[in-house]
From TrEMBL:
Keywords: Signal. Belongs to the Izumo family. PANTHER family: IZUMO SPERM-EGG FUSION PROTEIN 4. The lineage of its organism: Eukaryota, Metazoa, Chordata, Craniata, Vertebrata. This is Izumo sperm-egg fusion protein 4 isoform X5. Transmembrane segments: none annotated. The gene is IZUMO4. It comes from the Eukaryota.
Length: 186
């Protein structure tokens, strides 16, 4: 029960990943303020405005990750630049027929969610390609703070014989303290 409460609170605090990017506020402020110039159908304006306003919160709702939503700055920049490029193209001087603009916003949103999911998972996989305990810097998508992800890599084919404490048969009972001690000895 406590776990469900904790997960519920985490979801309530969650904001999304893209909002952690340094240009997010400026870009999305522009997008929200210029949405009325994109469609000549009055019904598109509130729908599009709502999509843009709820972008961050909806992102976290759609991520569905079993690992913490933490992304490297490099990957966040890649995702943000892809999203901003697509949005900027959408905002280039045209007016669209009814329904087109909100549909394009939804497609961009879905693409952004997929890019973020892939970036988070790729970072974790890259981390696990190392041998032993590895740490990399990330940004928490929940509160935009700098964080560190620690993982244990299993790519130990080239492992020195002196690291026998990290070989698979001994990993079952390995504690963080034992691993640290093993690494410090060698």
């Amino acid at each position: 029960m406590a776990l469900l409460l904790c997960l519920g609170l985490t979801a309530a605090l969650a904001r999304g990943c893209l909002h952690c990017h340094r240009n997010f506020s400026e870009k999305f402020s522009f997008y929200r303020h210029h949405v009325n110039l994109k469609s000549w159908w009055v019904g598109d304006i509130p729908v599009s405005g709502s999509l843009l306003t709820d972008w961050s919160q909806d992102t976290m709702k759609e991520l569905h990750l079993a690992i913490p939503a933490e992304i490297t700055r490099e990957k966040l920049d890649q995702v943000a630049n892809a999203v901003y490029q697509k949005m900027d193209q959408l905002y280039q001087g045209k007016m669209y027929f009814p329904g087109y603009f909100p549909n394009e916003l939804r497609a961009t949103f879905r693409e952004q969610v997929q890019l973020i999911q892939n970036a988070i998972i790729e970072s974790r996989i890259d981390c696990q390609r190392h041998c032993g305990i590895f740490q990399y810097e990330t940004i928490s998508c929940i509160n935009c703070t700098d964080s560190h992800v620690v993982c244990f890599g299993y790519n130990c084919d080239l492992i020195s014989p002196s690291f026998t404490c990290l070989e698979p048969p001994l990993l079952a009972n390995l504690t963080l303290e034992d691993a640290s001690e093993c690494l410090m000895q060698h």
